[in-house]
Design a protein that fits this description.
about 20% strand, about 45% helix, alpha+beta, nine-stranded mixed beta sheet, Transposase Inhibitor Protein From Tn5, Chain A, domain 1, single chain, 16 helices, 2 domains
């Protein structure tokens, strides 16, 4: 029993949550319910019937961690509690825990790249009640493979409004924040800088004048062999499954002219160009992408930041859909969709940490957590 506090350290991060149930009628303590839900989701449960069934099947294991004196609540009781639990307080507790996990994971080589991106849980909407599907903006620490936080996009707004709220709640000092082209907004840039982070943002049609100026600059300078400017260059080559991709990265801080033309972009320090040449089945396709950044000119950092941001689809969204079947979730009422999204983010982060130095896939590791309570306990102990 001496090791119990370590095994349930994660749950202690949520001890400050207000239990929405009438205290005189609480039969199942909140921390026991949260531990049950997390363990069951890690082990493959995807709805409250499966969670309750897993709990009854593995009650002896759960009692090694917490008392569970009254056993396991019904699936209806679990559903009611998760729907009633304040999702903002739960989210804030998750952010606090994730920051601790990021610190424990140690410093990365160079700045931590934090990719901010959105995802819709398609089946969480209810057209009969006029409820749109839940759309969440998530911050993903790419090197540590951790979800740092999430922010729901309200039905009458878009990601541009929600992203600053997410950034405000995170500890980002020294990080490099990447967002897709939608996030290339002056207010978002300002918010990132007030948090002590740098930004790396692609520039596309939503900032047409800025994009045109950067494109003309690189076109002209490349024609002249960059004879009139200091530029950093970094090439990469990837070849697999009959596909050859060459990426050429250019970065420069010689942009006094650009800052005069666009003075309202806070701390604009460097611009970048990435040219992707893809050869597949004898055909070659070339695309070019332009970037602005508050970080010093660094072609290697440009390559890493852009590559890891493009990888958020596989590292986060694909895992939630394919491994955790998030798009199949039909939870629609109350705070349930928000809260279970947090649980899945916690489970994903724990599994990725547990298998970081192994050859196990995420899919296999989740199945192993279902087959072996010893491995499941190892995953949970990793949160301590």
């Amino acid at each position: 029993m001496a090791e119990v506090p370590q095994a349930v350290a994660l749950i202690d991060h949520f001890s400050a949550l207000r239990d929405p149930r009438q205290q005189g009628k609480v039969l199942y303590p909140l921390r026991e319910v949260m531990l049950l839900i997390l363990c069951a989701v890690l082990a493959g449960a995807e709805d409250f019937v499966e969670i309750a069934t897993w709990g009854r099947t593995n009650l002896e294991f759960l009692r090694r961690l917490l008392p569970f004196a009254r056993g396991i609540p019904s699936h209806d009781a679990l559903n009611d509690l998760v729907n009633a639990l304040n999702h903002e307080a739960f989210r804030d507790s998750f952010v606090e825990w994730a920051q601790g996990m990021r610190t424990a994971a140690g410093a990365a080589d160079g700045p931590t790249v934090v990719a901010v991106d959105g995802k819709t849980s398609r089946r969480t909407g209810d057209s009969g009640k006029g409820r749109l599907p839940l759309h969440l903006i998530s911050a993903w620490a790419t090197q540590q493979r951790l979800v740092l936080g999430q922010q729901a996009v309200d039905t009458k707004e878009n990601e541009i409004v929600a992203i600053p709220r997410l950034i405000e709640m995170l500890e980002l000092s020294g990080a490099l924040v990447t967002i897709d082209a939608m996030g290339c907004q002056k207010e978002i840039v300002r918010t990132i800088r007030t948090k002590g982070a740098d930004y790396l943002l692609p520039v596309k049609g939503n900032q047409p004048t800025l994009e045109q100026d950067i494109e003309l600059f690189f076109t002209e300078q490349r024609r002249r062999g960059f004879a009139e400017t200091t530029v950093f260059f970094h090439p990469t080559v990837d070849k697999d499954h009959g596909r050859l991709e060459i990426r050429r990265h250019w970065s420069t801080a010689d942009i006094a002219w650009l800052k005069e033309l666009h003075p309202s972009w806070v701390d604009l320090t460097s611009i970048g160009l990435i040219e992707r040449e893809v050869e597949r089945a004898g055909k070659i396709e070339i695309t070019r992408h332009h970037f602005i950044s508050s970080a010093p000119a660094d072609a290697v950092l440009l390559a890493r930041g852009a590559r890891t941001h493009w990888g958020v689809e596989n590292g986060l969204h694909w895992c939630l859909d394919v491994v955790f079947h998030e798009d199949l979730s039909r939870l629609r009422s109350g705070h349930g969709p928000h809260n279970m999204a947090v649980v899945r983010h916690i489970a994903l982060s724990l599994l990725k940490q547990a298998i970081a130095n192994t050859k196990l896939s995420l899919k296999t590791s989740r199945k192993k957590a279902a087959w072996s309570v010893e491995f499941l306990e190892t995953v949970i102990r990793g949160s301590g």
